[in-house]
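Lab notebook, design round three. We kept the backbone fixed and only want residue identities now. Task for the bench partner: fill in a sequence for the structure below.
Input structure tokens:
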């Protein structure tokens, strides 16, 4: 739609789409609203819409991930999580333990993240663990502690939903619902997340291609939730010096194809504490909208992923260096190219 198009013009286009038997998706933007169309089995004649008031252009989307595609919405999407803009000009730092282990542990982590200048608190109350015998999370008790940490620090909460049965519960506490790597192609869970009013953080599957990743996001958008943040967290390769191979080149690749913001998780992406800070910095340099990092008050005592968790001092150092890189690049890019 044109920048000046109002609600009546948007409604008129949607009515036209519905009259043709298709589903309209109003995707708001800073400058312009995009209206996606799904439900059609073949091409639609753009002449159906071109002449309607407020329409800037009718574009045929060539990609299978129609609503996620930049063809549908050229402008970047900014996802608001508890008042924090993800995908805007400023990078966003999300930190916290792999799992919520106790009230004290999550409150201490939250204060550490806040003190370092982080904006979002992560922590799983439902954990997808490789072994059924390891710590599975505190469930609702953990969610209550997260809510308490939010009340004390003002940090927005990112926490994972591992199945449709517990989605309602997670959604009622979370500011942003995480869908983990193992669930990236759990299509019923993706559809449930698509019916949520909360933003969703979708992690890339352990062995998924860029197209599979974007198609997973498309499931969420197709149900009407356009607030999706993508997260690169490493993929499985032959490399054995890390737990996963962090694929930073996916950041510009996603940005070329999609309007959705992408952040990076260098904790799962490397699986080794000493590699987390370097790769967090590289993520920001590569243009990610932020990082999500595991932080624990005492990593050696963590019930999950302690070996890849930073302690509060390390997280503070990382946060300051990430901001320094981001500010340097932003300042330099404001100078006209010929003068640099
Ligand atoms: C996590 O964030 O703790 C987690 C389980 O991540 P992933 O789904 O990327 O493995
Ligand atoms: Mn973890």
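Proposed sequence:
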């Amino acid at each position: 739609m044109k920048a000046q198009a109002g609600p009546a013009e948007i409604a008129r286009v949607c009515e036209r789409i519905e009259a043709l038997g298709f589903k309209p998706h109003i995707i708001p933007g800073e400058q312009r609203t995009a209206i996606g169309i799904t439900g059609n089995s073949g091409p639609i004649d753009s002449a159906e819409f071109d002449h309607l008031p407020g329409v800037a252009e009718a574009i045929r989307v060539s990609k299978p991930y129609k609503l996620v595609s930049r063809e549908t919405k050229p402008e970047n999407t900014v996802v608001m999580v508890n008042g924090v803009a993800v995908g805007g000009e400023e990078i966003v730092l999300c930190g916290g333990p792999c799992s919520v282990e106790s009230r004290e542990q999550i409150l201490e982590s939250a204060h550490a993240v806040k003190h370092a200048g982080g904006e979002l608190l992560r922590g799983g109350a439902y954990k997808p663990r490789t072994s059924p015998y390891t710590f599975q999370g505190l469930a609702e008790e953990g969610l209550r502690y997260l809510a308490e940490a939010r009340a004390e620090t003002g940090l927005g909460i990112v926490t994972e939903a591992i199945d449709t049965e517990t989605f309602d519960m997670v959604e009622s506490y979370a500011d942003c619902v995480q869908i983990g790597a193992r669930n990236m192609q759990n299509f019923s869970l993706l559809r449930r997340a698509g019916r949520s009013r909360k933003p969703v953080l979708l992690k890339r599957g352990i062995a998924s291609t860029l197209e599979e990743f974007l198609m997973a996001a498309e499931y969420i958008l197709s149900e009407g939730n356009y607030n999706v943040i993508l997260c690169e967290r490493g993929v499985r390769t032959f490399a054995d010096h890390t737990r996963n191979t962090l694929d930073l080149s996916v950041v510009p690749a996603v940005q070329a194809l999609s309007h959705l913001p992408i952040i990076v998780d260098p904790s799962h992406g490397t699986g080794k504490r000493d590699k987390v800070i370097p790769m967090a910095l590289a993520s920001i340099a590569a243009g990610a909208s932020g990082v999500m990092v595991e932080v624990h008050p005492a990593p050696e005592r963590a019930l999950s992923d302690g070996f890849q968790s930073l302690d509060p001092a390390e997280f503070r150092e990382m946060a300051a260096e990430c901001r320094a890189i981001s500010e340097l690049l932003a300042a330099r890019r404001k100078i006209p190219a010929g003068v640099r």
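Keep this in mind before ordering anything: The pocket of phosphoenolpyruvate (ligand 1) is lined by residues 98, 124, 128, 180-182, 203, 233, 268 (CB under 6 Å).
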